[in-house]
Amino acid sequence: MSARKFKFISPGVFLNEIDNTQLPSQPAEIGPLFIGRSKKGPAMRPATVDSFAEFVQVYGEPVPGGKSDDVWRNGNEQTPMYGAYAAQAWLRNSSTCTYVRLLGSQNAAYESGGEAGWKLNGTVKQGLDLTTTPSFAEGTGLTGSAWGLFAVPNKLSGTGGNSVHGTGSLVAVWYVENGAVGLVGNDTENTSIGSNQVGNGIGRLIASDSTGNFTVVITGSSANSYKDRVVNFSLSPTNNNYIRNVFNTNPTLVNTTTTNADQRERYWLGETYAEEFIQKYNRGLITGSGDAASGSAYEINAPWLGVVLPLISGSGASPATHASRQIPFEDGATRNNSATGWVFGQDLGGAAAKANYTYDSMTKLFRFHGLDQGEWAQNNLKISIANINYSQDQFNKYGRFDILIRQANDTDAAPVVLERFSNCNLDQNSLDFVGRKVGDQYVEFNSLTRRLETKGDYLNNSKYIRIEMYSDDPVNEELLPFGFYGPLKYKDFTITKAANTGTTWSLSPNTFVAPANTITLGASIPLVTGSGLGGLQADDGPEIKFLFPSHELRLSGNQDGLADQTNAYWGVWTGRTKSSGKFNFGFADLNRNKSDSLNQYAVSDSTEYQFVFTLDEVISASSNGLLSWASGSRPDGDAISAQSGYTYRNVIDTGVDRFTMPLYGGSDGLDITEKDPFRNTELADKTELNSYAYNSVKEAIDIIRDPEFVQYNLASVPGITNEQLTTHLINTCEARADALAVIDLKGDFQPAHEGTSKTYPNLSETITNLKNRQINSSYGCAYYPFVQVRDTLQGNLVYMPSSVAAIGAMSYTDRIRAPWFAPAGFNRGGLSSGVAGLPVINVTQKLSSQDRDNLYDANINPIASFPNEGIVIFGQKTLQVTRSALDRINVRRLLIFIKKGISNIAASVLFEPNVRATWERFIGQANPFLSDVQARFGLDDFKLVLDETTTTPDLIDQNVMYAKVYLKPTRAIEFVAVDFILTNTGASFED
Fold first, then answer.
1. Looking at the predicted structure, is the pLDDT value of residue 505 above 50?
2. CA distance 256 to 695
3. Phi and psi at residue 144, to the nearest 5°
4. Is residue 589 domain-shared with residue 644, that is, in the same domain?
5. What are 871-907's pLDDT values in tens digits?
6. How many CA atoms lie within 13 A of 875 on its CB side?
7. Are residues 519 and 384 both part of a single domain?
8. What does the DSSP assignment read for 749-770?
9. For 344-394, what is each residue's pLDDT tens digit?
10. Which residue, 151, 164, 281, is CA-closest to 544?
11. Is 674 among the domain residues?
12. What is the C-alpha separation between 30 and 390, in angstroms, rounded?
């Protein structure tokens, strides 16, 4: 305290301490930022984690590659995900890093070829075309086609008036790059279709063998290197030849660029619905029994009949051409986040309103969206609403409920709850309002400003989902979440045959999307032959109805052995059978997105809801109290809420207070035929307009360019060597002036997934490529060559970009010293000793002394291997060509650190009076900060000037405080010169 401010009353000595050595409070730690792939996590937006454990929780474990079991269902883990390893290397020794997960994103003005997602043979095609048979001759191939197997029980009714001949369902889909798919065996007339007669087997009912096995042939042109496949398979998951065990389920094997000819396939097996087919058959929804009273039964000695129909036309016609005759089937999808159907409220009218009950008349409340997770959320999560309870407070009628985010593969008997939001309500003025508790914010990339824009009212409190309210208007206070709309599916269809048209059922080019969803058969595609199904009587109108698969729902409160029915979660049933809660792995296929031409969440001419569920249709048996659910039971009068004098409250009082729903319709927007969707050989000579992969990486870099949006001091896209993209990263860091870009170089080691075999590094090519780029920036650095590391979680040996090893060394240096120490040499660059955060066991090229000199002269930092010392980073240059202190990494990182620290101090005096007292306050914080850096060997000396010579009166009039900081950075020893002098025996060393 100043003596002038002290109030002296009586004589005395007054002592006071003034401490000018206090360091400013430390701001939140700023770490590096990495862009790359990961197993899960928020995509195309930055998120910060503070430990490797948190990284694994949010983004999943690093993927070493080499895993190719059922890629269609389990995801693509065939190639290393370098960005995740960079995060692990950093977090091994330091805390805090920011990650941007890459998914596919097409440019708003994309050109042909720039669409996100996957394609069949280079062309996006779609449509269940039941109007024409694709032109197919044996020994030729269709390009870009997909084929669906529809199965029907063996028993079909015979002749008679208006008999229904059976119901079948789609059970499998094959996607074929070049070729066609057909069943072989005996048809219903016992005519044999051989493996060389695939064309005759398309569109024809073929019998399985007596054990239920089908045989399918996938064939095409003999002039290419693909193998024809003749495969016998079963629809039973317990059989060794279960359909997913015997067919190729890896889409990347059709890629001619990255697959060796002897491993190449012309197809992959996509969706299968065997479990759903069996469940519906057991429930009587799929049946072969017709109107027995109308005629005799027609049976063959086989459990199933099957027919292959074209789902995607191979004719090359555009989807628009066939729009009136097709169901748009799945094609390559742009990136889309999954969502649930709309959740709606209960019928407040009680039993008296049951006759007029419709789902659409119920009030829609909200729905949930996966939080930038792509497909992962719909494959791995389900959402339950539980503990629904009405209010008994006459002054506040809002009820309450809980929201549970659960693992998709858990059971109702043992729920695995990842997140819970308890005591939610629909009162917008309450702190427990569901929108506020869950959060509704989301981000969108603005292609004009090249930045993310945040929308929504409430911060997200979930790591997995956000909520969307149906309306901003208040709802009836009594309303509670009671039901929801299921995912979409394509509309079921029925194939009929007009009377007196002979024994061949055919498809005519009639409009498929009709009110009755019926196709009248004409003279185009043979479907069924056989006199028993000929329909020779004038009044005979035989037909077969084909279903598209849908989720099963819980039908009873005790079907999985629950001791207490009130613990049952109604709604979606994820079990394999009606009574088994064991997870049905077909769950993910039922949630897949539809064609890009369709709205994923609104019905169209081609789509309908798989189901609509509501607790208003739960039934309680009067005899034993067994709870069950049946669609339509409320208007039919069987449901609890439909009983005389009952309301929805009686449903809740019975203990029926919870249900589960799936997320659906999401897509990663990636080319699933690529082992690495962002491989450099695919990025070569591309732009953001004609390559979604190029655009995705560029968009991710643009997202992180604003220092006020995201902070970091290092940036890297490990594994990406595309020169335009790595230059864009360096330019972004230089424009921000607060981060160092660590890049990888073209000409270095090329992993096998870049082509069909790995290519070892070419030193001279790497140097020439970099020199030709003429980069002169201290905000970038590069290393050479690739290293080999041992994955610490799974033990795999993985080839790793040099940037990952360098980043690990920088993290180690920061922990034991400071950013201004050189992350190189035997002490802090000894990769064999573990400084990289990952065990580095080898290099892809052993460098000679001359090699190291050539690299260092080109500003490339060598990673050398020495016989005794092991593998060592042996350089610390930036990519600045101009000779100055900033051509060294330790000095550039020193400047980044000091500028960030001084910037934080300066921010504390913003809007303060521009007077000497404020200047002294700034100096009082800045000097100790710089002194600390000096004491820790970052600076040899410094000088801070802030007075009337810097902040002149004219600057004061412009509201500017101007300071100068002079720095003498401490240089690292990179060259050691020692003279060894031989002397005569009599010479004195003191001379």
1. no
2. 23
3. 70, 75
4. yes
5. 999 999 999 999 999 999 999 999 999 999 999 999 9
6. 27
7. no
8. -B-GGGSSS-B---HHHHHHHH
9. 999 999 999 999 999 999 999 999 999 988 899 999 999 999 999 999 998
10. 164
11. no
12. 48
Whether residues 450 and 521 share a domain: the answer is no
Is residue 509 within 8 Å of residue 635, measured between CB atoms? no
Do 143 and 84 share a structural domain?
no
Q: Let me know: does 85 contact 21? Beta carbons within 8 Å.
A: no
Range of the domain at 968: 1-24+914-991
Tokens read off for 786 = 């690739």
User: Could you give the CA distance from residue 660 to residue 830 in angstroms, rounded to a whole number?
Assistant: 53
As a whole number of angstroms, the distance between CA 163 and CA 618 comes to 33
Alpha-carbon radius of gyration of the chain: 35
Residues 564 and 506 in one domain: no
Instruction: Check whether residue 83 and residue 47 sit in a common domain.
Output: yes
On whether the CB atoms of residues 106 and 596 are closer than 8 A, the answer is no
The label of the residue with tokens 């050189």 reads 822
- Say if CB 583 and CB 574 are below 8 A apart: yes
Give, for 787, the enclosing helix (H) or strand (E).
strand 787-790
**Of 891, 922, 944, which residue constitutes the final position of a domain?**
891
Q: Quick one: pLDDT at residue 513?
A: 32
Q: How many domains does the chain have?
A: 4
HSE, CB side, 13 Å, CA atoms: give it for residue 115. 15
Which element (helix H / strand E) includes 435? helix 434-438
Work out the average pLDDT over 852-863.
Answer: 97
Q: What is the distance between the alpha carbons of residues 164 and 154, in angstroms, rounded to a whole number?
A: 14
From CA 176, how far away is CA 93, in angstroms rounded? 48
DSSP 530-586: -GGGS--STT---EEEEEPP--EE--BTTTT--SSGGG--EEEE-BSSSS--SB-TT
Residue 863 lies in a domain: yes
Residue 175, beta-bridge partner list: 146, 268
Residues 538 and 556 in one domain: no
CA distance 722 to 730: 12
Estimate to the nearest angstrom the gap between the alpha carbon of 472 and the chain centroid. Answer: 30
First to last CA, the chain: 61
Across 283-305, b (16+ Cβ under 10 Å) vs e yields: eeebbbebeeebbeebebebbbb
With a CB cutoff of 8 Å and minimum separation 6, the contacts of 359 are: 344, 483, 485, 612, 614
**Does 516 lie in the same domain as 570?**
no
Cα distances (Å, whole numbers) of residue 156 to 186, 526, 830: 16, 17, 75
Q: Is 424 helix (H, G, I), strand (E, B) or coil?
A: strand
Q: Per the domain annotation, does 897 fall within a domain?
A: no
Whether 900 is in a domain gets the answer no
Calculate the CA 435 to chain-centre distance: 24
Q: Residues 623, 629, 632, 635: what is their CA dihedral angle, to the nearest 10 degrees?
A: 50
Is the per-residue pLDDT at 854 higher than 90? yes
- Please identify which residue in the block is written with the tokens 């058959």: 281
Triad 20, 22, 25: Cα angle to 5° = 145
Higher pLDDT, 540 or 74: 74
- CA-closest candidate to residue 641, choices 665, 661, 615: 615
What is the β-pairing status of strands 570-573 and 659-662?
parallel
Q: How far is CA 679 from the centre of its chain?
A: 17
Rounded to the nearest 5 degrees, what angle is found at the Cα of 726, between the Cα atoms of 725 and 728?
Answer: 65
pLDDT at 528 over 60: no
Helix (H) or strand (E) holding 199: helix 198-201
d(CA 718, CA 678): 11
Q: Among candidates 591, 724, 718, which has minimal Cα distance to 662?
A: 591
Tell me if 325 sits within 8 A of 589, measured CB to CB. no
Give the whole-angstrom CA distance, residue 325 versus residue 318: 12
Q: Is the pLDDT of residue 514 over 60?
A: no
The partner residues of 49 in beta bridges, in order of sequence, read: 97
Nearest in space to 542 (alpha carbons), one of 492, 512, 504: 504
